[in-house]
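Please check the following for our workbook:

***
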Amino acid sequence: MSRSSTKETAPMQQGPLTLGRFLSVIGLALALTTGAGSASAQRVLLDRIVALVDQGVVLQSEFNARAIEIRGNAARANRPLPEGEQFRTEILDALIIENLQMQLAEKVSIRFNDDEINRILGSMADNNSMTFDEYLELLNEAGVYLQTREQVRKQMTLQELQRGMVNRRIQITEQEIDNFLNSETGREVLAPDYLVEHMLIPTGSEDPAKQSKLRYAADLIARIKEGEGFAAVRAAAAQARLFEVEATQFGWLKAEALPNLFREIVEGMEVGDVEGPIEAGNGYHLIQLANKAGGTEQMVKQTNFRHIMLSPNEIRDEQQTEDAIREFRQKIIDGEDFATLARQNSDDASSVVAGGDMDWINEGQLPPDFAFVIDSLEVEDLSEPFRTENGWHIAEVIERRVTDLSSIYSRNQAEGSLRNRKFDLELQNWLIEIREDAFVEFID
């Protein structure tokens, strides 16, 4: 057996470290002995270690599986691969980097339970137009169910580790944000995306039915404004064949990528608005703004409320907790001070000092069951007791407002975009560093 090390170690450290690894080699170089009682027992090698990586190992079986996967992907993509030693070295380097990251993830306790893995598998099933059970059955039939679960777990672990370790290395200054917001690139990145529904009634300058087609297009617009769905009206018009109906599927586009004919019109529309007939050389266009995403204008609904929360515990069961919260509600109705009762009794550590005041909460920030109650209250209304996963609550809405968070939102978006730009480079730098700092021995 020959060994080569990628990092020098002190003599005092090398002795026990090498011995421990030697014992690991003995334990993991598995062999199956056949012919019990025979003087010449035959051993069959099942696996072996090809590299020692700090406190971990890379096995021959891992190398073989990765090589098969890479060759298969390359064949499907008709992509050439490096040959011989270069191919082997690249695979080993990738497995070593993964092994180091998984060891780091274990040290910082990054783990994903079976429910979280199942959620990802559920999404994979949806993407394949299958139910969860159908997808699992397919994986089982292919003999890759356990392998797929572990691949998903490893990928999630690596992504979470990289996100945490790399983002802390990235610094974004206020000046960088200002420069980005004032740049053409920044304005382009932060511009909203539009989803536009479209149909066209074709016509031309010499078309004798041009006026009839104009009236027909106007009738279609009227039907949509009266509540019929744009797609349904378009489908019905195409089926009726009174006049030819064409459509363009634009997908999500920035305003500058939309046709000049209605670019400015779309920018002034609200979601759900319809416009038309818009006359052009090729006919009458009808459009609807189906959706809009992004952009720097952010008018956010906010609610200021306060609450008292009681959670069942060792000395107060579920029924006693509900009875207690009802008693507090009655005390408030009878004139006792909400804030005082909250400070003296609430189990919500985040708001107890403020007398239960949650300050201003943006729409969409609350858990759905909590938001349902808060959204149903008028200002100064006191809720009935309600249950969430954290306990029993009573809540009172203090005030509501709509706040312009455009500047904050724009700066956050700019920071996120700059961070994403720096992430890949910083990730590569970090991977190089952990590889250089690692103790690696290759075993031939």
Remarks:
- Residues 418 and 429 are 17 Å apart (CA to CA).
- The first helix runs from residue 11 to 28.
